[in-house]
Amino acid sequence: MGIVPLERALxxxxxxxxxxxxxxxxxxxxxxxxxxxxxxxxxxALKAREARRNQQQTVNKEMKLRPKIDxxxxxxxxxxxxxxxxAGNKVKVTIMFRGREQSRPELGFRLLRRLSEExxxxxFVEAAPKQDGRNMIMVIAPHRSTKAAATAxxxxxxSAPTREGSDDGASAQARPAAVPxxxxxxxxxxxx
Length: 192
Fold this sequence. Notes:
Elements: H1 6-15, E1 19-24, E2 31-35, H2 37-54, E3 60-65, H3 71-86, E4 90-96, H4 105-118, E5 123-132, E6 135-142, H5 144-156, H6 169-174
Parallel strand pairs: 3-4
Antiparallel strand pairs: 1-2, 4-6, 5-6
């Protein structure tokens, strides 16, 4: 519209039943806009609510290990870490040293390096292993693709489980049909 005196701008706003809103008060001359201010506030509140709903919340999980961990226990803990990463969560891996183990931090470092190599397809080392008193700490974060897949899976939600005894076609296809007793008789033999 260009530069318009204040009285004329207020008259224009009243004619079209809108509000005169000052957009940039520090500009010379100040910039104003004709709009429905109530509608503008409502739409901006909706956008802010939608942005809060869509923002990702990272959850930090923690897994504690010992330097002399048994191979089976290690595999179990690694499985938990993989599950956390698939769900899109960061994992803080802590190795706890006790007594003489504190004089051998390279054992913990080797264990953490091995773990990071084994979970490399789902996550990456966000914070390298570092000694913190009696503990050695490393943080593993999921890759962006893993995090996006977990968010998409969470948005669709789990499918409803079907009951074992229901008469739907899907469960009937999954179970083998019962063979009637008469069908076991050999058709080729005759008693006559």
